[in-house]
Each structure stands twice: as structure tokens, then as C-alpha cells.
Amino acid sequence: MNYDVAIGMLGCGTVGSGVARLLQEKQNLYAQRVQAVPGLARVLVRDLARERPGIPAELLTLDPADVLEDPEIQIVIEVMGGIEPAREYILQALRAGKHVVTANKALIARHGLELFEAAAESGVALHFEAAVAGGIPIIQTLKRSLVANQVDAIYGIINGTTNYILSAMTEAGSDFQAVLREAQAQGFAESDPTDDIEGFDAAYKLAILAGLIFDQRIDMQQIHRVGIQRISAEDIAYARRFGYVIKLLAIARRTEHGMEARVNPTMIPQDHPLASVNGVYNALLVNGDAVGELMFYGRGAGQMPTASSIVGDVLNLVAELDAPPNVLMSSPLPATAAVLSPAERVMNRYYIRLQTHDKPGVLGQIGALLGQEEISIHTLVQTKNNPGEAELVLISHPVSELRLRQAVAQIRQLESVREIDSIIRVEDFRFH
Ligand SMILES: NC(=O)c1ccc[n+]([C@@H]2O[C@H](COP(=O)([O-])OP(=O)(O)OC[C@H]3O[C@@H](n4cnc5c(N)ncnc54)[C@H](OP(=O)(O)O)[C@@H]3O)[C@@H](O)[C@H]2O)c1
User: Are residues 162 and 295 in the same domain?
Assistant: First the structure.
């Protein structure tokens, strides 16, 4: 391959082969746009024998030094995934004065400080558009296009697997486990789906987004995280009855109690734009103080959407190779992490579903315990599914999570309460 700017790539799986395809097929277009031809010079893989259509065999290597120590290579793309050795290889590349583009959200969320410091020391850039929401251009948008704003809130559906599962549960009325098995069979969920269904993947991405909008470093441990594994077909049916859908929402926003960042299943009004984001699609609603509300929608993963973001980063670097480092695109992160508002202080409405014995006075007892914590009820439904038993579903008015937890702990002690099945936040998209 002929090129002006030599690119080294670490990994050539799903995303890497998409990147290689774009760089080959659109060479002329890119040359016209950035006035230089970027091309793959070396590609690190684990297995030389694996079929890689379109990748010339002479580019492949098993030795990372062929990429990291080649002085000709100016830009390194990391699409291996995982923490080690990706972290070590990126550090080596940055220290060798190479710009790096990565799609690795876990690595940026957990080791961003170390990596950005290494980039700053060497005067090179570390770009990561593909790490959040795959093909949706949200990182450059926040860093460059929205730089004039204070962004007050981001609400995101940023994990395709959980959105696929919740959408399928909503459509078919099926239970979580059945839909998860089907999603795994169709390749929409990993065989070990923990990272997705327990909200870790969304939390990595949210840590990156929250860091950008708060101009602070976000410690993953501080992100309040609840997965979707306890959402049932019953909850989804009640949500529909009350005019809501359930989504795994990643939220970063400024509140009167401070900065908040959390990932949790959330009931959102059926007529809200995020409610119609279904299947593996992702979306982000951004609220900037000057621009107002913006919404981004698209494919949050997949070979070519992710490659689109990576090659976009590469071309931006190529266009600015001879310029001094762009301060907007470097990410100086404070060594100390931001202090986020504890979840207990955040005000929300809540949906609660519980099973009780069907006896007189049960409702009164529950109402009294809620009243003690100044929790008032917005909606209440009682159904009798089995003799002697009743299901109680209520939606509260706004209450702090602390008060809610205290009330729930007391309700759980009641002899007449058999089980509290679900507690789900209800989002009204208002600032508190
Ligand atoms: N897939 C998506 O839709 C998507 C979306 C957004 C972000 N991402 C991120 O993009 C990255 C890559 O994802 P992917 O789906 O392309 O993964 P993948 O298909 O598993 O590909 C990983 C590649 O890295 C190589 N590799 C892994 N460990 C290596 C090691 N120790 N030494 C040398 N080569 C190694 C593998 O080599 P072999 O080919 O020889 O096995 C393979 O080519 C991850 O960080 C992921 O989170 C992916």
C-alpha cells in the first residue's frame, strides 16, 4: 500500500478489519479531504494463520515492537480490547511520540489519567471517539462543537445489548432470561453478558462523558450503577399501563446537590424521544446552556460504524499532523477525581411493586410508613392474582433515595408484606 502517513494497528478483529477496509477503499477520497494518504504499515495480531480478507499478509506481525518501535509509524490504532497488554502498548506508543486512536472504553475510563498524562508529556494526542456510542460522533461534538456551552445534562442509551433486551421484552412481553438467551443465540449478547447487563459497559462510557461535561476526572467507583437483570415482564407491563417504557439510562447532570452520574433502569415517558430508541440503537440527549437540547441517534456498535469513528479520528490527526497540539482535543485531567453527589441525595420519583397478604389494613400500614418519610403517592394500583395475596404497585412523588431506602427498609419488616419485587426510578427529565 502506498501512503504518506504510516499507521500501525494493534488488533485486527471485527473493528480492525473495518478500519482496514475504509483506509483501503476510500484512499482517494481521504487524500482529497486531508491532503495526505494515510495507510496501514503494520498490524499486530495473535494468530497469523487466521483468514483476514483484504489484509496483505506482509503487514501482519506477532511482535508489538514492529508497530511500537517503528519510527516511520506516526499514528497507532488500538483495537485489541482488554486492559493489558493494551494499556502497556498504548503507553509505549505515546512515549515514542506516536499519536494514538483507541476504541477501548474500559481502558480510557479506568486508566485515562495515566494515558493522557503520557500523551501530554510527549506532545501527542490520544483520541477515543469510538469508545463511546460506536458510530455516534459524541466525543468530538462535546470537545469541539459544543465548547461554547456548559453542558448541564446528558441522558444516554449507550449500551446496545441491554437496549436490545429491554426492547424485545417490551415487544414480546417475555421475561429477561428468555430474551437474554435469544440475544446470545443471535449474537447480540456475549456468552458472558455481565459487562453489559450489569451496567459496567454503560458506566465506562458514562465516566468518559461525565468527565468531559464536568471538566473533571470521574472515578468509576463513584458512578451509581444498577443493571437490568431484575427487570421483569410484569414491570414492563405496568410501565406501559402507566405510560412509560423502561430503558437502561446513563445520566450525567448538574443538580442543586452537585454533579450526578449514574446508570440504572429507568421508566421514561412513552412520548419522550429516548423512548422510541429501540433494538441495538444508541441515543444521547445533550442539554447545553446555550444550545438547548440536542439529540444524537445511531449505531452504538458494529464493525463499520465503529470504524467510521476510528478513521474519523485518524483523519483529524492527519489533517493536523504538522500543527501544534490542539488544546481542545488534548484532555488534561485533574489528578484528584470529581466528588459526585451521593445517590441518596438525588430526588426522583419511584415505581415500587410489592406482594402482600390480602388482609385489611395493609395499605394503611404501608401508607403510614411512606408518610413518615414524607413520601406521597402519585399512582396506586392493587391487584389480586392469587387467593389471599395482593400485588401493590405505586409511583411516588419526588423523594430522595435516602428517604425511599428508609421507608422501604421499614415496609420490608411488615408481617403483611411478602416481598418487594422491584424499585425503579421514574425520570421526568426535569432539573432538580
Ligand atoms: N465490536 C464493536 O462493535 C465495538 C464497538 C465499539 C468499541 N469496540 C471496541 O473495539 C475494540 C476491539 O473490538 P473487536 O470487536 O474488534 O474485538 P475482536 O474482534 O475480538 O478483535 C480483537 C483483535 O485484537 C487482537 N488481539 C487481542 N489480544 C491481542 C494480543 N494480546 N496481542 C495481539 N493481538 C491481540 C486479536 O487478534 P487475532 O485476530 O489474531 O485473534 C483480534 O484481531 C475493543 O476495545 C472494543 O471494546 C468494539
Answer: yes
**306 touches ligand 1 (CB under 6 Å):** yes
- Whether 331 maps to a domain, the answer reads no
259 is a domain residue: yes
Helix (H, G, I), strand (E, B) or coil at 87: helix
Which residue range is the domain that position 214 belongs to? 139-299
279 and 403, same domain (yes or no): no
The pair phi, psi for residue 249, each rounded to 5°, is: -105, 135
Domain identity same for 170 and 185 = yes
Q: Is the CB of 43 under 6 A from ligand 1?
A: no
In angstroms, rounded to a whole number, what is the distance separating the alpha carbons of residues 419 and 411?
10
Give pTM, 2 decimals: 0.95
Residue having the nearest C-alpha atom to atom 41 of ligand 1: 46
Shared domain check, 266 and 153:
yes
Residues 190 and 61 in one domain: no
15 CA distance to ligand 1 centroid (A)?
Answer: 7
Which grid coordinates are listed for 113?
489519567
Quick count: other Cβ atoms within 10 Å of Cβ 56?
A: 12
Cell 485486527 locates to 12
Co-location of 115 and 183 in the same domain: no
Residues 176 and 127 in one domain: no
State how far the Cα of 310 lies from the Cα of 331, in Å rounded to an integer: 18
- Write out the chain's pLDDT in tens, 432 residues: 689 999 999 999 999 999 999 999 999 999 999 999 999 999 999 999 999 999 999 999 999 999 999 999 999 999 999 999 999 999 999 999 999 999 999 999 999 999 999 999 999 999 999 999 999 999 999 999 999 999 999 999 999 999 999 999 999 999 999 999 999 999 889 999 999 999 999 999 999 999 999 999 999 999 999 999 999 999 999 999 999 999 999 999 998 889 999 999 999 999 999 999 999 999 999 999 999 999 999 999 999 999 999 999 999 999 999 888 888 887 667 878 899 988 788 889 999 999 999 888 999 999 999 999 999 999 999 998 788 999 999 999 999 999 999 999 999 999 999 999 999 999 988 644
Q: Give me the residues paired with residue 102 across strands.
A: 78
Is 103's C-beta closer than 6 angstroms to any atom of ligand 1? yes
Task: Compute, in angstroms, the gap from residue 79 CA to the centroid of ligand 1.
Answer: 5
Residue 337 resides in a domain: no
Asked whether residue 333 is domain-assigned, the answer is: no
Ligand 1 contact via 210 beta carbon (within 6 Å): no
Residues annotated as catalytic are 205
What is the rounded distance in angstroms from the CA atom of residue 189 to the CA atom of residue 203? 17
Question: Does residue 15's CB lie within 6 angstroms of at least one atom of ligand 1?
Answer: yes
How far, in Å, CA of 366 to CA of 74, rounded? 66
The answer to whether residues 295 and 218 belong to one domain is: yes
What is the CA(203)–ligand 1 centre distance, in A? 20
Number of domains comprising the chain: 3
